[in-house]
Amino acid sequence: MKGYVENIEKLSLENEFFRKVLYTDKNLQLVVMSLKLGEDIGEEVHELDQFIRVESGEGKAVLDGVETALSDGSVVIIPTGTRHNIINTGATAMKLYTLYAPPNHPEGTIHKTKAEAEAAE
Q1: Which InterPro entries match (predicted)?
Q2: Domain ranges of the chain
Q3: CATH number of the domain at 8-120, please?
């Protein structure tokens, strides 16, 4: 079967890894993430578009210096070239999923921790 069909809410909430790539094709990539207390994804700029949805937790998005509060159900759309960061400011892990267009990580990537992700980059 081409494509991907799963319960993304369940996969996001059950994920304990900093980053886990679930699906990759030539134009799109689906990734789940879990940010520990006080953790962030790390400020970055991509040459691609990104969509993020928070499934649980609280935090903030910072897009080109503008901060916006995030909570369950929040969506962040990050256009190409936007400096951005997602920061967990809540009392629990922040669970989210993200779509990259085009893909940003090698297919099958799993980074158990942020340190592991930083070392791989």
Answers
A1: Cupin_2, Flavonoid_dioxygenase-like, RmlC-like_jellyroll, RmlC_Cupin_sf
A2: 8-120
A3: 2.60.120.10
